[in-house]
Amino acid sequence: MSTTDGQAAEAKYDYKADEDMRTDVWDENLHVGYWSGPEDTSAVEVATDQLTDFVIARTRIAAGQRLLDVGCGLGKPARRAAERTGCGVVGISDDPAQVKRATEAAEGAGAANQVRFLHADAMEPLPFGADEFDAAWAIESLVHMPDREKAFRNIAAVLKPGATLVATDFFENVPLGGDRKEAVDAFLSVASLGPIPRLDDYPALLRSTGFELVEFLDITENTHRTYALLLQSLYDTEKELRADHGDAVFDGFVKAFKGCAESLVPRYMLFVARRSAGS
């Protein structure tokens, strides 16, 4: 049994407040998985780490340097970066519950001396000094920010000249219509996401905020398996999810992920930018 549209609106899933549903159906890494190709059959928890590793490689952070993790989630990527590279990491989130959980996980992993988490919002000036970080990343967090331009300016303000920013983001390469637009709209609704930018807008956006675009990769083909696996995970735990979150939430998620799995939208990118020396 499903609810009416009116009931669905009232029961809208609070995406940011409920980490448990996301981790139950996916992974502690709150981002898509990365598969090298059709022959890669990695499980979800491996594939999400593979995306983190893909970002780490392009961040080029090293031991003794400092990395800013913008939108740190539950802190698993930050811990992995510290372990793999020896760098120090500061993760920020605008959700105090995420900061608490990330801090507890770092302490449990014995990484508290190398990784720390703070409550901060990239929509506001960040609580750090100028030129404080050697690199920054934003793994699937920009889409939760209502103003990317403001976020980029605030990030640039705390990076050293020449420092690297690596980010993953959803994007549109052509105007969407019909079933493709419906799929993306459903996805944005259940995931409480902001607007998805046009690809053509990105280079100028970065230039205007103190960055130079170094590399752009469309990795949709490597990440899109995420939606089919999310859909299967929903079906596998349907009884429990309906009981815990209601029919409206469950049906909304199924509609969103089914539409995305069938239409190859939204597209997913990784970009590397460098803070301009004169900015």
Automatic annotation (TrEMBL):
One of its GO terms (biological process) is methylation. Residues 21-275 form the Polyketide synthase-like methyltransferase domain. InterPro entries: Erg6_SMT_methyltransf, MeTfrase_dom, Methyltransf_11, SAM-dependent_MTases_sf. GO terms for molecular function: S-adenosylmethionine-dependent methyltransferase activity. The keyword Zinc does not apply. PANTHER family: GERANYL DIPHOSPHATE 2-C-METHYLTRANSFERASE, ZGC:194242. This is Ubiquinone/menaquinone biosynthesis C-methylase UbiE. It comes from Lentzea flaviverrucosa. The lineage of its organism: Bacteria, Bacillati, Actinomycetota, Actinomycetes, Pseudonocardiales.
